[in-house]
Design goal:
Blueprint: H1 2-13, H2 16-19, E1 21-27, E2 42-63, E3 73-77, E4 80-87, E5 106-124, E6 141-144
Antiparallel strand pairs: 1-2, 2-5, 2-6, 3-4, 4-5
Protein name: Spore coat protein U domain-containing protein
Domain Spore coat protein U/FanG: 12-142
Signal peptide: 1-20
Length: 145
């Protein structure tokens, strides 16, 4: 019993800035070659790994808008845009964003140490007429606790 109280007293004595030490790493969502006249959407996945030490409590993970808005993301190849979206589930029905425009954030919690890998489910809708080339977008991942 005395050890638990000592550990609790030690954690409470740490400065706020020293409590949580977290890092976020990402594996990008990389789509295969898009065929503009294909009848089906193009799907792919990526991931985000969160690693925290001395973190106690709840957190949320948000995805920024990139080159469009969180509700209507777009990759660019010069002036040409290709619509796509990022989702929280394999069913690709819930848009992962910042909680605005019908999007959701992903919650979690940590008790001292945690590592969590979150899958990002991407989709490029079918039948978009675009020119050939490489289409890119950059999404900011934010973990708030």
């Amino acid at each position: 019993m005395k050890r638990v109280l000592t550990a609790a007293a030690f954690l409470m004595a740490l400065p706020v800035a020293a409590r949580a030490q977290c890092s976020v790493t990402a594996v990008p969502v990389t789509f295969a070659t898009y065929q503009p006249f294909a009848a089906t959407s193009l799907d792919s996945t990526g991931s985000i790994t969160l690693s925290c030490l001395l973190a106690i409590g709840n957190y949320t993970v948000t995805l920024g808008p990139g080159g469009g808005s969180v509700a209507a993301r777009r990759m660019a190849n010069g002036p040409t845009l290709l619509s796509y979206q990022l989702y929280t589930t394999a069913a690709r029905t819930t848009i992962w964003g910042d909680g605005t425009g019908g999007t959701v954030t992903v919650p979690g919690s940590c008790l001292l140490a945690c590592v969590r890998t979150l899958t990002i489910y991407g989709r490029v809708p079918a039948r978009q007429v675009v020119r050939p080339g490489a289409y890119l977008d950059t999404i900011l991942v934010t973990m708030s606790y």
